[in-house]
Specification:
By secondary structure, the protein is an alpha/beta fold. The chain has 3 domains: 60 residues; 95 residues, Threonyl-tRNA Synthetase, Chain A, domain 2 (2-Layer Sandwich), CATH 3.30.980; 246 residues, Rossmann fold (3-Layer(aba) Sandwich). A 10-stranded mixed beta sheet has the order 8-7-16-15-14-9-13-12-10-11. A 4-stranded antiparallel beta sheet has the order 3-4-6-5. A hairpin with a 5-residue loop joins strand 5 and strand 6. Helix 1 packs antiparallel against helix 2, helix 8 runs parallel beside helix 14 and helix 9 packs parallel to helix 11. The radius of gyration is 29 Å and the shape is elongated. The N and C termini lie far apart (83 Å). The relative contact order is 0.11. The structure holds adenosine-5'-triphosphate. Adenosine-5'-triphosphate (ATP) binds next to helix 8.
Length: 445
């Protein structure tokens, strides 16, 4: 027995070895007690043995038994069990569900064919419950993120979000209802906006969704009707007081002439014709070059102020200029100027906010220079990976599963910022035409 424990210690670590020793001793002591009982009271000993075997079989079949009971009287059970107790029900079903979703691993050497599954702490939270546990050998949080949809279906919850609180650990957060399922009105702009945390909407955990603009470039990708306009307008509205004080300027390229025409006076510069749009980006590149020359040796980062404002280059439908433009010369001029702004603008107070429907490489050539990437509803998981980075869809950024329905899906997005691989799920505030008109009337210069 000790030899076997030593083998387990060497191959699987101390805890499986301790578990094995405890189990082995329980078996030995239990067998001796039972034998003594058998020789004194044979009938009682045999009854005890049968009862133990039945209990063991029931315990092993607990997931299956629960499933049968659920199928038979599920509605009645649901009606009498309060939310809090549901957590314990899910915990009870967990071994079976873990096995069915491929999250189990064969247990320690010598323990037969039994399976190991994520243990950990289960606790209720407002609007759901959370499971935090140590990953089994050979697992990563991605294994759990990949099956978050089946888990949500089986647990009958709106969503299961997966992340990792620390190396070697996984956290599954199940939400009874989705806090982002109903549209959110764009918040009123903060009277003193902070370019390091602009309020754009709400996060899945109920907190405010803020994004940093200083030192960042933002890429917003989404299929038609996914809500790109609402993300862009949320940024512009959040900046509005700074636009009024002339500390920030928004320069807009609007090839479709629909989305931003109504923002007229809010934009320091606006262009809709191909030549004008290219000239506007060249002007931004020139500004970057001038600032670089002026600041060389004096300061490393630009500080926005009146007379030397922070500039946001707001480009709607980037693909129009990078891929669909037929004039090759114009296209090259645009690509060169945009590359200058993207590579040097961050420290020099010029940021890019670009929206795109089709995130292929040809349409977003310098994708890696966008430090904050926002994926609204997209058509395929491969597009999610193109926008948010390889493996993002597997890590839980299911932008391809966001509903097409405007009320329940438009404006919902997954966001990834450089340096943080965990996608955040958010919903942008929605600005109606009246909200836009009010913002222009109140803050335009
Ligand atoms: N944040 C939001 N919350 C709720 N509904 C929204 C939100 N954003 C957009 N919508 C709804 O979705 C519709 C389409 O939104 P929007 O025009 O912003 O999408 P888009 O991605 O810019 O589309 P396109 O590529 O066709 O311009 C809007 O008319 C509105 O009804």
């Amino acid at each position: 027995m000790f030899l076997l424990a030593l083998v387990i210690l060497l191959r699987r670590g101390p805890w499986p070895a301790v578990r094995f020793l405890v189990k082995a001793w329980l078996w030995i002591v239990g067998s001796i007690v039972w034998l003594v009982l058998f020789f004194r009271r044979p009938t009682a000993a045999l009854l005890l043995l049968v009862a133990l075997l039945v209990a063991l079989v029931l315990w092993r079949l607990r997931g299956w038994l629960w499933g049968q009971l659920w199928r038979w009287k599920g509605d009645r059970i649901a009606a009498v069990i309060p939310d809090r107790a549901w957590v314990w029900v899910r915990r009870f079903q967990w071994p079976q569900l873990a096995w069915r979703t491929g999250l189990t691993r064969p247990q320690a050497v010598g323990a037969g064919a039994s399976m190991e599954y994520l243990g950990g702490r289960w606790r209720p939270i407002p609007n759901g419950f959370v499971v935090v546990g140590r990953l089994l050998d050979g697992q990563t949080p991605v294994d759990y993120a990949k099956v978050s949809e089946p888990l949500a279906e089986s647990w009958q919850v709106a969503r299961v979000a997966v992340d990792s609180p620390a190396r070697g650990w996984v956290r599954l957060k199940a939400l009874w209802s989705d806090p982002l399922a109903t549209p959110l009105r764009a918040p009123l702009p903060n009277p003193r906006p902070d370019l390091r945390a602009l309020l754009l909407g709400q996060r899945e955990d109920g907190l405010a969704w803020t994004e940093r603009l200083i030192g960042r470039h933002l890429l917003v990708a989404g299929a038609t009707g996914a809500g790109k306009g609402s993300v862009q307008w949320s940024v512009i509205r959040a900046l509005a007081p700074l636009i009024r004080w002339r500390v920030v300027e928004v320069w807009t390229l609007d090839p479709k002439r629909i989305e931003f025409a109504s923002g007229g006076r809010l934009f320091a510069r606006y262009a809709a014709e191909p030549v004008d749009m290219v000239e506007l980006v060249e002007a931004a590149a020139q500004l970057v070059a001038d600032r670089a020359r002026r600041m060389a040796g004096h300061a490393r980062t630009h500080v926005a102020r009146r007379g030397d404002p922070f500039v946001l280059l707001n480009i709607d439908e980037l693909a129009f200029l990078t891929a669909y433009l037929t004039d090759r010369k114009l296209k090259d001029r645009f690509a060169g100027a945009l590359a200058t702004v993207l590579t040097q603008g961050r420290a020099l107070g010029v940021a890019v906010l670009a929206a795109v429907q089709d995130p292929r490489k040809e349409t977003v050539p310098l994708r890696q220079l966008f430090t904050t990437r926002i994926a609204l509803r997209l058509d395929e998981p491969s597009q999610v990976d193109l926008v948010l980075g390889d493996g993002a869809a597997d890590r839980g950024a299911a932008a391809h599963l966001i509903p097409r329905d405007e009320a329940t899906g438009a404006g919902i997005a997954y966001v990834i910022t450089d340096g943080d691989a965990t996608p955040r799920r958010v919903r942008a505030g929605y600005l109606s035409d009246r909200d836009i008109a009010w913002t222009v009337a109140t803050f335009a210069r």
